[in-house]
Design brief:
Elements lengths: L1 E2 L12 E4 L4 E2 L2 E2 L6 E3 L1 H8 L9 E4 L8 E3 L7 E2 L3 E4 L7 H7 L3 H10 L1 E2 L3 E2 L2 H5 L9 H23 L3 E3 L2 E3 L1
Parallel strand pairs: 2-8
Antiparallel strand pairs: 1-9, 2-5, 3-4, 6-7, 6-9, 10-11, 12-13
Helix pairs in contact: 2-5
Length: about 170
């Protein structure tokens, strides 16, 4: 578990997409809402601390959207800023299980409870690392639970895209 650089980078016209909390929308990374681009050289420096990989899980740890979650579903090159906590699963934790676990009421309550409230809520990495979580030791069980919630998310997304036709004050699907 880590986060991105803490200093404000110099943004450039062309370069590596740089993601912050604004790009975490509906539990996905919306690259159209990136903070900007960073140079290849700055990205190399960032990658010494953290280099995004497919299926890394992000949690917003600073700002008004503290607690929002996303999972990396691309192999395209990008990097992140410090308000995002990055979690990489080893061979004992299924990424989609962790992704869904972080969205549960219990974990979101821990985030709300532990986030300091100044002008903006802030959850320290130290506090986040202390969160007690229950993870089944059987990876196959985690995969089944993760796959179930992934299918449920896809079904909800499809339902939200379904057009609604308004007819004389009534609606029909």
């Amino acid at each position: 578990m880590t986060d991105g650089p803490h200093e404000t980078p110099e943004l450039v016209e062309e370069g590596v997409p740089f993601i912050s909390v604004d790009a975490i929308v509906d539990n996905k990374i919306d690259f159209s809402r990136k903070r900007g681009n960073i140079s290849e050289k700055y990205d190399e420096l960032c990658c010494k601390k953290y280099k995004p990989q497919l299926h890394d899980v992000y949690l917003v740890k600073s700002g008004s959207t503290v607690g929002k979650v996303a999972i990396v579903e691309t192999t395209e090159k990008f990097n992140i800023w410090s308000p995002l906590a990055a979690m990489r699963c080893g061979d004992k934790t299924y990424p989609y299980f962790l992704y869904n676990l972080l969205q549960t009421k219990d974990l979101q309550a821990q985030v709300a409870d532990k986030a300091s409230n100044g002008t903006q809520p802030n959850l320290s990495m130290r506090e986040l690392e202390k969160f007690p979580v229950c993870v089944p030791s059987n990876i196959e069980e985690q995969k089944k639970i993760g796959a179930y919630f992934e299918q449920l998310d896809n079904l909800i997304t499809l339902h939200q895209r379904k057009p609604i036709i308004i007819l004389g004050g009534f609606y029909a699907e």
